[in-house]
Amino acid sequence: MDSTIKHIGVFTSGGDSPGMNAALYAITKTAEVNGINVSGFRKGYEGLIDGDLVQLKSHELQKLTQKGGTILKTARSKRFLELEGRKKALQTLNANKIDALIAIGGDGTFKGLLAFSEICDIPFVGIPGTIDNDISGTDYTLGFDSAVNTAIENIDKIRDTAESHNRVFIVEVMGRDSGYIGIHSGLMVGADAILIPESDTDFINLLDKVKNYDSEDAFLIVVSEGDEIGAEFVSSKIKEVNPNVDLRITKLGHIQRGGNPSALDRMLGIRLGVEAVKSLLQSKKNVMVGVLNNQLHLTPFNEVVKQHQVNKELHELLELFGT
Amino acid sequence: MDSTIKHIGVFTSGGDSPGMNAALYAITKTAEVNGINVSGFRKGYEGLIDGDLVQLKSHELQKLTQKGGTILKTARSKRFLELEGRKKALQTLNANKIDALIAIGGDGTFKGLLAFSEICDIPFVGIPGTIDNDISGTDYTLGFDSAVNTAIENIDKIRDTAESHNRVFIVEVMGRDSGYIGIHSGLMVGADAILIPESDTDFINLLDKVKNYDSEDAFLIVVSEGDEIGAEFVSSKIKEVNPNVDLRITKLGHIQRGGNPSALDRMLGIRLGVEAVKSLLQSKKNVMVGVLNNQLHLTPFNEVVKQHQVNKELHELLELFGT
Amino acid sequence: MDSTIKHIGVFTSGGDSPGMNAALYAITKTAEVNGINVSGFRKGYEGLIDGDLVQLKSHELQKLTQKGGTILKTARSKRFLELEGRKKALQTLNANKIDALIAIGGDGTFKGLLAFSEICDIPFVGIPGTIDNDISGTDYTLGFDSAVNTAIENIDKIRDTAESHNRVFIVEVMGRDSGYIGIHSGLMVGADAILIPESDTDFINLLDKVKNYDSEDAFLIVVSEGDEIGAEFVSSKIKEVNPNVDLRITKLGHIQRGGNPSALDRMLGIRLGVEAVKSLLQSKKNVMVGVLNNQLHLTPFNEVVKQHQVNKELHELLELFGT
Amino acid sequence: MDSTIKHIGVFTSGGDSPGMNAALYAITKTAEVNGINVSGFRKGYEGLIDGDLVQLKSHELQKLTQKGGTILKTARSKRFLELEGRKKALQTLNANKIDALIAIGGDGTFKGLLAFSEICDIPFVGIPGTIDNDISGTDYTLGFDSAVNTAIENIDKIRDTAESHNRVFIVEVMGRDSGYIGIHSGLMVGADAILIPESDTDFINLLDKVKNYDSEDAFLIVVSEGDEIGAEFVSSKIKEVNPNVDLRITKLGHIQRGGNPSALDRMLGIRLGVEAVKSLLQSKKNVMVGVLNNQLHLTPFNEVVKQHQVNKELHELLELFGT
């Protein structure tokens, strides 16, 4: 155990995602049990630069495992991209005698820590938080499971009205670069077609199905947002071959980013939060904690990459169910 | 009691709304207890014209009070606007020995029944079903309460992410001609601004608030869809005065039309369904059943109008909370 | 307008119920607009006696319309039943220059205010908050609609497993003295039998139905808690006539008291909160604000009584659907 | 590919769990794509014995991925424990030319298949379905994630009322022999104490905490049902040391078994359903398909055991957060 750590700093950065508050609870509780104080920096790297911090107490955080978003707030920081910003952040850490730093965010957040490590030698640990589930070194990122649960609960509602009218519905879900939410939610709601950026969409097949769809049932299409696909694009393609189709579009949008975290995301937040503090106590540094093959796993920051996780099994499912 | 009624026909017409299946259950159960058969016509007036009907059994419908949409499906019918279509519908009724007809739908549905009554003299009763709650003669229409519950559950999710980023969010809810969903959902989520078609929006005041919003908190705007307002219009107005604002738009869309009916809508469906059959048994005809001032109430079809229900009290609430 | 009011005190008392926080928001916002400060006393009358108060700000409460329970906490106070306790409460009000008092609670809360009015002459206004909906002078009390929504969402889940096993299920809902939750939730889920304290249960009929239930379907009984009925009692009755019945009991319990308030309860909280402040500004005193026949309505405290609201229409529905 | 399979039989057995219908959809869709018919036997082994079967069509099942329970119904079968029952089941399979059999259920279900394999040599494949997650060879069983999501959503509600009254609450969750639901839900809601059968509860520590709990906050205990623990037992222990404690009990009960399946359970159902058919096509027999370390995995029936899955990591979390 690394007995030199007395004061851990923590912050959330990049997009918020459900489960971040559960991670903050677990970090603080684990730290307290080990006699360590925890301070939370507000608004990501901005709080490090500006010295905007609050003391965290597990007794208060305990009630917030259920709360979506992040109580520390989050932001993207242009200033931290500059050396000057990082130097100010270093001053903040020194002034507050912070011995170690835990960051919850995406791959950009961890890249920031790597850059910071050039001038700051306290240990850093990262926790992957993004609804897109597109980070290597972990099966799940904080927020993905909540986002998919929100998506399917709402697509289930859309099915009610789609079936009542025998309509074609295009539902657009999040994931500009990653179809992970798209393929999962599409499979889970029994969609008639699923379109994601990782796959060459077989439009001919899709249009053929929609063209011949007998108007005696709903036809439900789940599509990821994106430049090459997206709801409007699919809609225009369909209307080319079937101009009279009774078609509606719903874009789920930011509802997928909020809401009470799902069971999986709360547990993931707790597991990763505990492991982050334990890793620091074991003198680890510049690593991301993750759950890989259902086991806790550490990945050095410089090996963490943005990674599409639509694997062979998912591609086969897409082929089987997707059009 | 009108002992001549042996066979009631029922159908859902216009837009679907949660609670319609509860009404079908109550109609069928009440009819059965009175020795009356019930047949359901599919796809609104289309089913009347085409003779597309199924026998309804309360034992099966009992399990479907929780289900959104309408198991009879619904549609808008151009053919029924023509005399020829209505004549075919009359043939269907005669062929199936239908003694009375109950329609669940909006004001357009009831207008159709009025036109039909010129050639068909069996009694008609209507049940108001539309999420817009814009029909005179009833405090609530089937589906409004469910739609608002869906809206606020999702706006609550948006608040999580809005507060995490201190962002301005514009959430667009349904109600092209009626701000009833907009004002209700806006008040219920503690919105910073609420914009509905019934009110001259004080853009100067709103823009002033957004201009000076201190970026230390979220700013949540709920706006009804529409030509004069709508999310994009409000967004463009804001960006004129505050081009750098961190603003996001979410349009809730058709999720507001589906989903399991809320408590109020299930109860309303049951009350109105029972009352519809009772009214027929009491030889009423060409009336809409409603709940006015919490009491069951009948309104002749020719007095039912599309009506904005944003009353004086709501206007005062809008003034107090809306900007 | 009563310009003498500068500082309103507010507290929640008795059982908590969803919607209380929305009322606190509306009270505070309306007061602020009228230049009035609002202080919240914690833990009901206990806070008045002990001088335990916090200043309320609408900007903070705005985010809490969605939160169940009461942020002011609530309690039953034995000390306030004694004159000495009420004298201490008076001292608190004087010391803090409280000009008017708003209490959110049940009939017991309002009786307390009546007693208090003998020694304290500032104006009191009450807001009815209880999930049991058993207070005269209002169609709805804060929390009832949320409780019923929670009940039916969970009974819907039970239906899934009941139908999978063709089991008899007895679900016990809250309402020791009042079957209002019982009859509503029973009707809304399509129960096979509904048993409430207000009605002589026709056990012979019920037992006959269960005895002959063909084990090809679920049989769902919704029963209010209580001495004369309750789940165990009904279970023992059934087992007398059908010892081999595959029967399960679930008591929903306190989940019915919590959770995010429903749309109706949030709106009710806002309407009643605004009206409470307005009433004070119009020099009203010792009245409860309610919504009667969908209109705002004032009832003098001494006319507010605990009242069963299972009316003639509900009794008829019970007879039709309840066994 | 095993081209000899033309007709697969499928059934659900033991306790129902959310996700079973998604599995039925995936089985049927995968079979259809491979030119195979699927028949569903109703009520588990009872349907095999009685020849009670229906043809399954993916087009219909597609809409039911969202539905809890099992549309095939389920049961425990005493008759199948006897050789005579199994002989009748064999006759049914022969009469209907069933080439392969897929069973969704728990370890008892798979034991039944092993016994059946002595007289029936068509291939069997099993899919693990039980909310208790206590089967070896898979990280997750169908239904566990849904059950935990239902548990935490409702415990969150209880927190609202517990905090409003500063009460001690004991919430009992399912898992008579397995504390897997208990430890997960307890951690996820930030419980003050978690008691499960796998762990010697440190009652001295717990009682010390409750004894000194300062009545300025809620105290939330999550406990698994069971003989040695359970809500009443814990309650009596607490009242011994603190007779005046303001304590309430809620037993979540069968609501944990029903409800729309969570995202994870729908996906698990789809993955396992597809893999079950693929395994048959690859001439596998007498194996259970599971997801182990996030990969599809086959376990021979005779190696499948009922297994507590509270591993070292969970025990450490329990020690850290549980009392």
Automatic annotation (TrEMBL), chains A, B, C, D:
Gene3D superfamilies according to UniProt: 3.40.50.450, Phosphofructokinase domain
UniProt keyword Iron-sulfur, yes or no: no
Keywords: Allosteric enzyme, ATP-binding, Cytoplasm, Glycolysis, Kinase, Magnesium, Metal-binding, Nucleotide-binding, Transferase
GO biological process, one term: fructose 1,6-bisphosphate metabolic process
E.C. numbers: 2.7.1.11
Pathway annotation from the record: Carbohydrate degradation; glycolysis; D-glyceraldehyde 3-phosphate and glycerone phosphate from D-glucose: step 3/4
Gene Ontology MF terms in the entry: 6-phosphofructokinase activity; AMP binding; ATP binding; fructose-6-phosphate binding; identical protein binding; metal ion binding; monosaccharide binding
Primary localization class, coarse: cytoplasm
Similarity comment: family membership: Belongs to the phosphofructokinase type A (PFKA) family.
Alphabetized PANTHER family for the sequence: ATP-DEPENDENT 6-PHOSPHOFRUCTOKINASE, PHOSPHOFRUCTOKINASE
NCBIfam families attached to this UniProt entry: PRK03202.1
Protein name per its UniProtKB record: 6-phosphofructokinase
Species of origin: Aequorivita flava
